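Student:
Attend to each token:
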Amino acid sequence: MARITVPKLEASTFKGWTFVFVAGVVLALLAIIDRGGLGSVTAANGSTGCQVEVVTDQLNVRSGPSQGAALVDTLPRGTRVDATRVVTDGFRELEDGRWAADQYLSPLPGSDC
């Protein structure tokens, strides 16, 4: 088994903007990984004519139009996605056949929702 050695850190290591920059990059990468990676959020491209924005801190995306349907993804506030005009039991169908609670989605100006 490979051994990982951590170099001894001196007080001078933590001084300067280099450390601040490196620490910021590491924390940003950890946040992206924690959120599910770069590919988990699909951007709206207008293909359906209905674009919506998430207006809650975290929106659950489900496989069907009910609270009991399997959770397949989560979207953070401000995410813009393509949706359809179909709303069933308070859930709006998203472009890829997934569903999200319509009350937490706001149509973008100029969208035909």
The two ends are 57 Å apart (CA to CA).
